[in-house]
TrEMBL record, chains A, B:
Species of provenance: Saccharothrix variisporea
Record-annotated HTH arsR-type domain positions: 6-99
Gene3D superfamilies the record matches: Winged helix-like DNA-binding domain superfamily/Winged helix DNA-binding domain
Keywords, ordered alphabetically: DNA-binding, Transcription, Transcription regulation
Record's protein name: ArsR family transcriptional regulator
Coiled-coil residue spans: none
Classification via InterPro entries: ArsR-like_HTH (IPR011991), HTH_ArsR_DNA-bd_dom (IPR001845), HTH_MetalResp_TranReg (IPR051081), WH-like_DNA-bd_sf (IPR036388), WH_DNA-bd_sf (IPR036390)
Length: 104, 104
């Protein structure tokens, strides 16, 4: 499996992170990841096809929001929580809480 | 001057707010408003033309992020801080703090 690119957190810009999060499906993905440890691609509870899901996961990965780790023939996805909190304190935390409490 | 539309805060969706904020110029506008009370349109310190600034302010107003109040021949702009904090606690606060501390 080809190695996946992840931006260094210090190169990530706030507008890029917000662009990645500004989508109802991606907000649901991020909220699910915030509740869980790591999730394998096929286990997300979102009403989209696998190819659309893959696109959304790519957008979030390229924005520095999540890390993808190949494990055999699967990929595990997890939020880069500590790195994001260090660079943009409270942003990911408040947004994932807001997803849980409101319609997105 | 024509009355300006402002959405009810309970109708505002998180993805709409994040879409409005996911732009470097609009992040600067919001950070300036967070530091000040209300700002008249021509006083924003952003490197764009007045017509582009007006567009950005309209996007933020329609997303429920700011309130525009006509005052004579001017318009005063202020964040809808309390309403946004009530609906999405910590989101606007953490984002405006992050703008101040990082490149956007």
């Amino acid at each position: 499996m080809r190695a996946l690119q992840h931006p260094a957190v210090e190169d990530v810009e706030l507008s890029t992170v917000l662009t990645a999060l500004a989508d109802p499906v991606r907000l649901r993905i991020v909220a699910e990841l915030a509740r869980s440890g790591g999730i394998v691609c096929g286990q997300f509870d979102v009403p989209v096809s696998m190819s659309t899901l893959s696109h959304h996961l790519k957008v979030l990965r390229e924005a520095g929001v999540l890390r993808v780790t190949p494990q055999g023939s699967y990929r595990t996805h997890e939020l880069r929580w500590e790195e994001m909190e260090r660079r943009f304190p409270g942003v990911l935390d408040s947004i994932t809480r807001a997803v849980t409490h409101t319609a997105v």
